[in-house]
Specification:
Elements lengths: L3 H9 L8 H23 L4 H18 L2 H10 L5 H17 L4 H19 L3 E3 L6 E3 L4 H4 L8 H15 L5 H16 L5 H8 L4 H33 L8 H6 L5 H4 L11 H11 L8 E6 L7 E7 L3 E8 L6 H17 L3 H4 L9 H14 L3 H7 L5 H34 L4 H16 L20 H5 L5 H21 L8 H10 L7 H9 L6 H7 L7
Length: 550
């Protein structure tokens, strides 16, 4: 006779007892190993030892969630009379969707394929003009790479762009298709049509939630996107530069109302001082920041981007940031953003510390909480207090220009989200997926469609980021986060005033957002802060700071 029905009956007899408590300690140890190995692999994607540790840690995680005994306990917790236990059961269930439907062999193959893609993406490349007079590194965004070609003739600039496309598109191929197909196989085992749908569910959303917010945001984004397009068209006419995909960064550099004023603004942001300044800013707001492990690694071997890791919170949290240049705002933005995650992990209530499934808020809202601190880097008060080298006449333009970029980022997140969904629905037709990405971006922004690579695949950056390979179905979280960020900023200003150097910010966030009972959802906590204001109103107000001239 099976012991599992007996266990289920016994647990169900006392719905106020936490049936998952006995699993928490084991999962804390597993997550500490997963977090530390991910941290080390992110610091150096070529670190084979860290990759092997990650494989073993993820195997333990898969085995943990494949336990029938755990599954029984999750089922009991999800119907508990205690809202805290019920929330914990739901969090365990969502985690089991991600980890419990893999076999050990499938998880090992996923890690291997990710390693192949990481190696491809990390390959360095240069491009030389036909006369060999100039050589350009291709290992950055097109916006950065193209600066070298600002004074070149159109034909040479187009050649550089084509070379850039070939370099970037090398990750689009059979290995990516194999990764997507493998994940879709796992999703079907779990009862989902594809892995995108499974992943979205694990973040506390469903496809309808995503579609509804995108629909809500389209008219809000239409006006700033049109202003951007009009400015590009104006710059194109005034400078006699064709409005093509290759020329977009050049035209953008000539189209902003504060374009010339902000041309050299990056030179004020010393990346070597970013950690000191950001940590000080957090502490001035009454937020914990002393014990962050911050790793700044060269972009040539680090995973591109910024990543936070809860290894054993509240004491052990880590941040890894790739760096490609000394003078850049990126380091400030990235550290402030990941510092937001660190603040959450270091401020957890005791009943959340003991259970890894409660360490983080669901990603759509956690990303918004982190984005709140990234926004502060652009505020005039931040520049005045922490980067006094920035001239006073630049402080407001920096703030307003971020509002313009914010609209661009949301639009990009919509493109990435829709394209990623298309990729998981149709992984065998990469040509169709890449065409969909470019056409969707053009439809939203009015910008021209880029050329194709030598295989005939139209270029678009939508599925080229390692973030989307390593965190599938994640991009829609940034759309929701944009709304959350603006809601939280407005709530702080309304409740305690300007957040810069305001020591009341930390206590307010801890008491009213972070250390609230896990039984109250994050959207409910935010509504308590904002009242009945429509969820996109604060975002709409922020976008009106846009500085692109008509």
């Amino acid at each position: 006779m099976s012991v599992f029905p007996i266990l289920l009956i016994a647990l169900a007899c006392n719905k106020s007892t936490d049936p998952l408590a006995e699993f928490d300690n084991e999962y804390v140890e597993i997550m500490a190993r997963v977090g530390s190995s991910k941290r080390d692999n992110t610091r150096n994607v070529r670190n084979q030892e860290a990759r092997e540790r990650l494989i073993e840690a993820e195997k333990r995680q898969v085995a943990f969630f494949r336990s029938r005994r755990l599954a029984q306990s999750i089922s009991v917790a999800r119907v508990s009379d205690d809202p805290v236990i019920r929330a914990k059961g739901e969090a365990y269930w969502l985690s089991s969707l991600v980890h419990g439907n893999w076999t050990l062999e499938q998880k090992a193959e996923e890690t291997r394929l990710l390693g192949v893609l990481e190696e491809l993406a990390a390959q360095e490349a240069t491009w030389s003009t036909p006369d060999s007079a100039s050589t350009v590194s291709m290992d950055s965004s097109w916006s950065s790479v193209s600066k070298a070609a600002d004074e070149w003739d159109q034909a040479t600039r187009d050649l550089l762009y084509q070379g850039y496309i070939e370099h970037r598109m090398q990750v689009i191929g059979e290995d990516m298709q194999a990764l997507i197909s493998l994940r879709n196989e796992v999703a079907k085992q779990a009862g989902f049509d594809n892995y995108w749908e499974l992943a979205v569910t694990t973040y506390g959303l469903n496809p309808t939630d995503v579609d509804e917010l995108i629909t809500e945001l389209r008219p809000i984004l239409a006006e700033p996107n049109q202003r951007s397009l009009t400015a590009l068209q104006s710059a194109s006419a005034q400078r006699d530069i064709s409005l093509t995909a290759a020329n977009l960064p050049l035209l953008e550099r000539n189209s902003s109302l504060y374009g010339e004023l902000l041309d050299n603004v990056e030179s004020y942001y010393d990346a070597d001082l970013a950690e000191e300044r950001i940590v000080t800013a957090f502490k001035d707001m009454g937020l914990p920041a002393d014990d962050w492990q911050v790793y700044t690694e060269p972009q040539r071997y680090a995973r591109s981007g910024a990543y936070g890791f809860a290894i054993r919170p509240p004491e052990n949290v880590a941040i890894v940031i790739s760096q490609s240049q000394r003078w850049s705002m990126w380091q400030y933005r990235a550290l402030a953003h990941e510092g937001g995650f660190a603040v959450w992990w270091q401020s957890l209530p005791p009943d959340a510390v003991t259970s890894p499934v409660l360490w983080s808020a669901p990603a759509p809202w956690a990303e918004g909480f982190a984005g709140l601190f990234e926004r502060l880097v652009y505020e005039p008060g931040f520049s005045s207090r922490y980067i006094p080298e920035i001239p006073s006449e630049l402080r407001e333009p920096i703030q307003r220009n971020r509002a313009r970029e914010f609209g661009d980022w949301i639009t990009d997140s919509i493109v990435v989200t829709l394209t990623e969904r298309e990729l998981y629905k149709n992984p065998d037709d990469l040509a169709s997926v890449m065409r969909f990405a470019a056409e969707t971006r053009s439809e939203l922004t009015g910008v021209p469609i880029p050329p194709a690579d030598e295989r005939g695949l139209i270029y678009d950056s939508a599925v080229l980021s390692p973030l989307h390979w390593n965190y599938p179905g994640y991009s829609q979280n940034f759309i929701f986060a944009s709304v959350t960020e603006c809601q939280l900023f407005e709530a702080i200003v309304k409740t305690v005033g300007d957040p810069i150097t305001n020591a009341n910010v930390g206590p307010m966030l801890r008491e009213r957002l972070i250390r609230v009972s896990p039984g109250q959802s994050i959207p409910e906590r935010i509504r308590d802060l904002t009242g009945d204001v429509p969820r996109t109103q604060a975002l709409k107000d922020y976008l009106e700071l846009s500085v692109i001239e008509p």
